[in-house]
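Proteins fold reproducibly. Next comes a concrete instance:

***
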Amino acid sequence: MRIGRFLVGSAVLIALAVGFASLFVGQVTAAENSIWVESKNHTPKLELNLPSFAPIIDELGKAVVNISTEGTEQLAQGGSPFGSQRQFNSPFDFFFQVPPQGKRSYKTHSLGSGFVINPDGLIVTNNHVVDRATKIMVTFKEDKKKYLGRVIGKDKKTDLALIKVDADRPLDAVVIGNSEELRPGDWVIAIGNPFRLGHTVTVGIVSATSRKVPGGGPYDDFIQTDASINPGNSGGPLFNAKGEVVGVNTAIYSPGAMGSTGFNIGIGFAIPIEMARHVIDQLHDKGKVVRGWLGVLIQPVSEDVAEAMKLEEASGALVADVLPESPAARAGVKRGDVIVSYDGRKVAENDDLPLMVADTPIDKVVKLDVIRAGKERSLKVKIKELEEDKVSQEITQTEQEKLGLSVQDLTPDIAKSLGVEDTDGVVVTNVMPGSVAETAGLRRGDIILEVGSLKIESSEDFREATQNISKGKPMLLLVRRESNTIFLTLKIE
């Protein structure tokens, strides 16, 4: 069937080609002493009046820059140059060099893009383009002189950076648009420096908005586009059809033989300009980004969690832990609370909450609506500033004997070896492959603190709490893994 459709389609294409040819052949004649047919007297009977982006791109390209950097990286003893920031399967891959055999440090060369936001020479790009750079060189489309760039500020969490060049003239700057007005299907234009090719233009549409990416961070809120983005496009602008910047091209999804081919397959991501503006303004004014801090570790509310907690719907952010002395702790937030509203805005998914908190002014008092023990209640929280040493997020998982696991009491010696201070709970000593416990995600070393609403202090408590688990009915577990806690659901099918 596929072959048949292809043949029919080919026949149609051939017929169209012949038809178009008949419109031109015979109506024009070769110029004297030339083998080429000129278009002097060419009057086609059919013309496809498709729009051209050329006029707008002529202007847009003046504010887009190519960025190349140099740096030096240290290779840890026994390490590899393909570290966590430069893995093949990273969405932020760009060119890098393998160090000579036996060398413990090596020079790096990378490339990227950026765009001028102010005639004085302020340029926006990605943090990963300039993060390890010791030298930043900037070139323009119509000025091949290399300008030395310096970092004004950078933010790893959103992968944004602000750099500056000192030019002898006012620079052409972009016009900022509104990314919140974007809809799937809108035209977008990407301009950048892929593979060191210089100013390259690609066009596509918005594929989706508010997109999260696998393995991404808590502040992901990408525009997804099929405009071709490749290594070197990082930091370049994404324009709308009016020539306004609506995003900063940042990442691509590119599966392949080693986890990633590194090349575009039609799935690219850009940071919305509304988020970028908020971050860049702070980098310009303060050299860093100040974010709000609530002090909770959260996880999604799955269907099983909602059923186990008797919630009406699987939405909100489930509090897996509350950090001591945090704003949440002072406000009375408890482990097991489901946050459904923050400062009057609905928390539909757990990923919504970090963005809301981060954008909250420091010392602002906000209303937090939570569901606790099946009842909704409101709390008042005074948001504080997020500091780097307060950031921690991990996962936890757990299960039982007939469920395919073994547990034992948490003695002081075992607790010490696991790096915990108290002996509450039981420790998972074995998880059988293919078991319910493994399916639930438990692993050796996990500490089970609660089953349902029962606190677990011994292996006997655990057996009693789990012996009456009903088939097909999820049971909520609270587990500690290393320094963090998380809720899991145990379900026998």
Notes: The CA atoms of residues 112 and 463 lie 57 Å apart. Residues 292-390 form a domain with the Pdz3 Domain fold (CATH 2.30.42.10). The first helix runs from residue 2 to 24.
